[in-house]
């Protein structure tokens, strides 16, 4: 069937649906949507009934096999494989890691379209105040965001993608569901941004980032014993 897709637009829609299916996780309670999706996207993936765990597993593995068979450019499949690496089902994670190394290792991490898609996974609909509630995309889960941060810290384009760059940093430091590890990675990315962002980008982001860092440091006591918190402070003063 996938070989009969008539053009780039059909292919793009198919890949987007595949990514949404990979991101989907069953919810423990009704209402809301899984990390990385909107309510509308969740309904599109599930149809009329929530997907059972075993069916979801087979569907995700099937999608990964189909995407592999399509022989797409590394930049196209990269977000999907990264998302698979951060899911809760071990066979999906293992398959995602395998395909990421096998099929997407040559992806250009300075490709603007790729970085834009990765920021969308990280930030969701951040800054989209005019988005209707059912179309508002939540940010990715902590595991996915952690994986994405290691990618952003290797990309010059990621350092120069205002306002997504700024949203990402503040998502790490202050965002809902953030972790000590994400705060640390947010600081590492901040250092990367200050080293590699263009002057016009720094003029927009610099003062806001510095103000945010000062507020974060004010929240730590001198007796802070957590190793990651101390490391975060170290990155703040670089």
UniProtKB/TrEMBL annotation:
Cellular component GO terms, alphabetical? cytoplasm; nucleus
Q: Which residues form the Proteasome component Ecm29 N-terminal domain?
A: 7-233
Q: Which UniProt keywords apply?
A: Repeat
- Which GO biological-process labels does this protein carry? ERAD pathway; proteasome assembly
Repeat as a keyword? yes
Q: Is this entry keyworded Heme?
A: no
Q: Supply the InterPro entries for this chain.
A: Ecm29_N
Q: Which GO terms describe its molecular function?
A: molecular adaptor activity
Do you know which PANTHER family this protein is assigned to? PROTEASOME ADAPTER AND SCAFFOLD PROTEIN ECM29 (PTHR23346:SF19), TRANSLATIONAL ACTIVATOR GCN1-RELATED (PTHR23346)
State the name under which the record lists this protein.
Answer: Ecm29 domain-containing protein
Q: Which organism is it from?
A: Cephalotus follicularis
């Amino acid at each position: 069937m996938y070989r009969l897709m008539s053009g780039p637009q059909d292919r793009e829609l198919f890949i987007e649906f595949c990514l949404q299916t990979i991101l989907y996780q069953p919810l423990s309670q009704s209402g809301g949507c899984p990390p990385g999706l909107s309510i509308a996207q969740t309904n599109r993936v599930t149809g009329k009934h929530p997907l059972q765990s075993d069916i979801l597993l087979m569907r995700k593995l099937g999608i990964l096999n189909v995407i592999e068979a399509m022989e797409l450019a590394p930049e196209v499949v990269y977000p999907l494989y990264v998302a698979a690496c951060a899911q809760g089902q071990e066979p999906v994670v293992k398959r995602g890691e395998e395909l990421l190394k096998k099929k997407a290792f040559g992806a250009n991490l300075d490709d603007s379209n790729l970085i834009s898609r990765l920021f969308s996974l990280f930030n969701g609909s951040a800054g989209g105040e005019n988005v209707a509630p059912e179309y508002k995309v939540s940010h990715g889960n902590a595991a996915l965001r952690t994986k994405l941060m290691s990618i952003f810290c290797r990309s010059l384009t990621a350092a120069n993608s205002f306002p997504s760059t700024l949203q990402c940093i503040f998502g790490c430091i202050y965002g809902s569901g953030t972790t000590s590890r994400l705060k640390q990675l947010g600081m590492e990315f901040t250092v990367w941004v200050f080293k590699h962002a263009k002057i016009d980008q720094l003029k927009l982001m610099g003062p806001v980032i510095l103000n945010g860092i000062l507020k974060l440091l004010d929240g730590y006591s001198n007796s802070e014993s957590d190793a990651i918190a101390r490391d975060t402070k170290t990155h703040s003063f670089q």
